[in-house]
Amino acid sequence: RGILCTVASVYDSLRFVAPFIQKGKQILQQLCQEKVGWDEPLSDQLYREWESWLLDLQNLSKRQIWQRNKRNAKVNDIVILQEDNSPRNKWKLARVTEVYTSADGRIRKVKLLLSDSTLDKDGKRTVKPVYLDKPVHKTVLLLEAE
């Protein structure tokens, strides 16, 4: 029962680990072919295969989403704000004014000050500054802060 429950509990909607899950299903198939009852102990060979598969399952769950380390965003970085509904030549320039650190120490969200080209004759802004909170993956680093 435990083997069936464990194999069935692996969720893989995108089929990334399908070959791995297949090995667990093959172990189940062998159990059925050998007509092993629900509560009977496994043969030595099947037990070794099962233990190996379980160890691989534990290692699989330890994989990190981030495969390479990238530089975290910093205050005063100059970025371009990606906008899904506009062409790249219309994306806005912004400066990072604040960073929000997640529990794992990575910057996932930033506060941006959008650039504005509407200035008066003295070079002062004619409109109120616009601040936005955006996920860091929606920005493209243009110039690193010193």
From TrEMBL:
* InterPro entries (alphabetical): DUF5641
Taxonomic placement = Eukaryota, Metazoa, Chordata, Craniata, Vertebrata
**From what organism does this protein derive?**
Poeciliopsis prolifica
Task: Report which superkingdom the organism of origin falls in.
Answer: Eukaryota
Please give the name of this protein: PPUP7235
Query: DUF5641 domain location, by residue?
Result: 49-121
